[in-house]
Each structure stands twice: as C-alpha cells, then as structure tokens.
Write a structure and sequence with these properties.
There is one protein chain. This protein is α/β, with parallel strands linked by helices and about 450 residues long. The chain folds into 4 domains: about 130 residues, Rossmann fold, CATH 3.40.50.2300; about 170 residues, P-loop containing nucleotide triphosphate hydrolases (Rossmann fold), CATH 3.40.50; about 70 residues, Helicase, Ruva Protein, domain 3 (Orthogonal Bundle); about 45 residues, Arc Repressor Mutant, subunit A (Orthogonal Bundle), CATH 1.10.10. The protein is built from 19 helices and 16 strands. The strands form 5 sheets. It has a 5-stranded parallel beta sheet with strand order 2-1-3-4-5, with helices on both faces.
Length: about 450
C-alpha cells in the first residue's frame, strides 16, 4: 500500500499542528513555517501533496507555487487562503494549483479534498508503474550467450544510467549497433522520451545540418514555408542516435560539437539560440582514428562522442551465439510470414556456425528469411540455407595463407600464446597501427580490436 507524503506550509503553528495531528495516522506529514524552508526541501525530496498557505511572510504562497511547479510540475498543491479572494484563487489555479480551501479550515472537508487529490496521485503512479513495467519487459533484444556479449551488455547497463553522457558504438556493419543504442536509451533515465535514429550516410551532405537542427521558413530554396523542427529537437528529453557518424561533413561535425558542448544550437537561417536536453549515442563501422589522420573527422568531436565506447563483436567472433540467434529469427520470421517451424536441425546449425558471416547478424537474418520462405518442411535443413557454396569461416584471404605448415608437435601447441605472438608481431611490424596490423592478419579492424581486448594486449 502506498503511503503518501504530505507537506503543510503555514506560518501559524496552531494550524500546522492541527493538520499534522489529524492526518499523521494516514500520511507521512512534514510541516514548514515559511515558503523558503519548503522550497529547499522540495529540491531534495518531492512530496505527493503540499498544503500551501497563500498569505506567507517573505515569499508569498503564489510565488512559492510558481517555484514549486518549476522544480517539479508533478507535485500537487492545494492552496489555503484566509478569505476567498477570487482573483488570487484564479492566479493560483492558472499556475497549476490542484484546488484551494478557505480558513477557518474544516478538517472533514479538508480530508475529502486531500483524499481526492491523492487518489489522482495514486492513479498516476499505478499507470506509470504499468508503463514502466511494459517498457522494461519489452526492451530491444540483443541475443547472446557468449562471454563477449554478456560482458558487453553488463557494461551497457552500467553506462546507460547516465542521462547525458555521449556513447560511441563501434562494430562491423550488421552487428546490431542500433539495438545497443536502443538498449542504452531504454535503460537510461530518459527512457520515457523519444528514441530518434538518423543514418548520417543516407542523407545528402548539404541537408544534414537542416535535418539535425531544423530550419526557419525561407532558409533555402525548397524549404517548407512553415519551417521545420530538427531531429535534435525531436529527440528532446530522449535519445538521438547518429548511425554512421563518420559520414558527417566537417561543417556538420563543427555544429554537432557545439551542441554536445553547450546543449545549444541554431536552426538553419535563424539567429535565435535554442536549447534542448538530448542524449547523443553515435555509431560507426569506420575507423575514426584513421579518418582523423586523413583530416576527414574532427579529433575534438571524436573525443566528445567517445566519452564512453562500446565495441560490438562480430558474429564470427562469437560463433556460439549463432544457433540461439538463428532460432530466435526463425521464430519471429515464421510468425510474420505465416509459417510453422519446430526448429533447426543440428546439421544446419553446424553449417551456420562454420559459415563466414561477413554481413554479421543482418546477413544471418537474410539467410533465415529466405529459408523460411522457400522451405516446405517443419525443420530447417542444410539444403534450405543456400550457403554451401560460400565456404568456411576463415576471414583470411586464401592467397595470403602461405604453406606448407610444419606438423603439429607431439606435445601439442598453445594456440592462445600463438595468437598473442602473432598479434603482437603484427602490431610491431605495423608500427602500432591497428588498422594495418589487422590487415596483415587478414582480420577486420574491429575483430582485431576485440581480440586485443580479449587477450588483454590493449
């Protein structure tokens, strides 16, 4: 059962004591003699309801009401007045007062007014609890049983708790970076706000700034006559997800950096400054450090975006996650396409694990969708997948493999130590350039970075 908190603000001690004695059995009651004292308290703790005297010394009840609503608009306030002065009551109601009572206070009448107000609070809390529960139970699903994914999701849950810290998600194309961004959003304090994605690579460079920050009417040829809100503004009190952030022009990067540092921006064609609270999460499959070295990406923006970095492992680096992802996709696609499959055969799962997934989860989804559409059985078989001709899982181009190889020693070999050796050797040969080291080993940059972190060589 909810036990509500009631604040009583009145300069008359007898009134404070009388209300406290009458209500303390049912509610948690705290009393205050001045507006200044209750305002300090409201900034630290939000009560459910405040009984606020209009005729307070110093800061008046009307002034205090306006300040309380500025601190927390959800707090209900019942005004208490010594005489029913219509203009004062109207002013209080316009500022957001729930109701008013007139002195001398009749406790039975006040009890009914308080009960009705708190019933409103109770209903709002129950509705909010149901909404919160729905959101929490229907979070975007990033499937993975591997240690790599479990560690990553534990990290995501930790960093998501901040409402405004920028996060950069890096990983190969198709690894599920947007799912990670959604997971950050729905686990953050701003999860009730909007999640607004934008693919920076799909918007013409000359329109990126107006898409991000909006524009005023007549700002450029073809602009709407009414102007347009930008996506930064649309994501207010929520999350803006900048996918493929490495494709932003240098001019747009400068505007984005200013917004990240100040929370302020200008619409295209306007001199009026706007301010909004938006959490920025960005993602890329490009090597931003290499782009910085080429003068194509601002170093200061990189460090502002990458306050926190989340590295998403490729599907080839977490083979054990392929069967559960495939089974999940099979279930989802079967329902959507009106098919009924009982599962995937062990042979088909083994084939999926051996395949080289250059397109990661996106490619896996396409394979499963095609199989669901074309298969006539109840269980997906290897022949349904259509990937036999695509070869094994090695990411090293065949022409780069030099043989013959020495025979396996009688005592076996320490593969982990061998991996450490060759990764360290590649870094030495490349002068510490991770992109070049990854190329020497026939790996993607992000797969190489992931292995370095896993082997604690980074």
């Amino acid at each position: 059962m909810i036990r509500f908190t009631l604040y009583v603000v009145d300069d008359e001690e007898s009134i404070r004591k009388g209300i406290s004695l009458s209500f303390k059995r049912d509610y948690k009651v705290k009393t205050f003699p001045t507006a200044e004292s209750v305002l300090r308290r409201v900034e630290e703790e939000a009560p459910d309801l405040i009984l606020l005297d209009i005729g307070l010394p110093g800061v008046s009840g009307i002034e205090a009401l306006e300040k309380i609503k500025g601190i927390n608009p959800d707090i209900l306030v019942i005004m208490v007045t010594a005489y029913e002065e219509i203009q004062t009551v109207i002013s209080a109601m316009k500022l957001g007062a729930y109701d008013y009572v007139v002195k001398p206070i009749h406790m039975d009448s006040l009890r009914v007014t308080v009960r009705n107000a708190l019933e409103t609070v109770r209903m709002k809390k129950e509705i909010q609890a149901l909404q919160d529960r729905y959101l929490r139970e229907n979070l975007p699903c990033f499937i993975g049983e591997s240690n790599a994914v479990q560690d990553m999701m534990h990290f995501v849950r930790a960093v998501a708790k901040s409402a405004d810290t920028p996060i950069l998600i890096i990983g190969e194309s198709g690894t599920g970076k947007e799912l990670i961004a959604q997971a950050v959003h729905y686990r953050s304090p701003l999860y009730r706000g909007p999640f607004v994605p934008i693919n920076c690579a799909s918007i013409p460079k000359e329109l990126v700034e107006s898409e991000l920050f909006g524009y005023e009417k007549g700002a450029f040829s073809g602009a709407r006559t009414s102007g347009k809100r930008g996506l930064v503004e649309e994501a207010g009190e929520g999350t803006l997800f900048l996918d493929e952030v490495g494709d932003l022009s240098l001019e747009a990067q400068a505007k984005l950096l200013r917004f990240l540092e100040t929370g302020e921006y200008y619409r295209v064609g306007s001199t009026k400054k706007h301010r909004v609270r938006t959490r920025v999460v960005s993602a890329t499959n490009r090597d931003l450090i290499a782009l910085i070295e080429k003068g194509l990406f601002r170093e200061d923006l990189y460090y502002r975006l990458a306050v926190v970095k989340v590295e998403v492992p490729s599907l080839n680096d977490r083979k054990e996650d392929i069967p559960p992802i495939a089974r999940y996709l099979l279930e989802q696609l079967s329902q959507r396409l009106g098919k009924s499959f009982s599962g995937i055969s062990p042979e088909a799962e083994e084939m999926l694990k051996k395949h080289n997934w250059r397109g990661n989860v996106r490619e896996l989804r396409n394979v499963i969708e095609r199989a669901v559409l074309t298969s006539t059985g109840e269980v997906l078989m290897p022949s349904d997948l259509g990937i036999e001709e695509r070869g094994g899982s090695s990411s090293v181009p065949p022409e780069s493999i030099k043989g013959p190889f020495p025979p396996l020693p009688a005592g076996g070999v320490d593969l982990a130590a061998l991996e450490d050796h060759y990764m360290s050797e590649a870094l030495k040969r490349s002068g510490g350039n991770a992109v070049e080291a990854a190329r020497l080993l026939g790996m993607s940059y992000y797969a190489f970075r992931y292995r370095l972190r896993k082997r604690k060589l980074l």
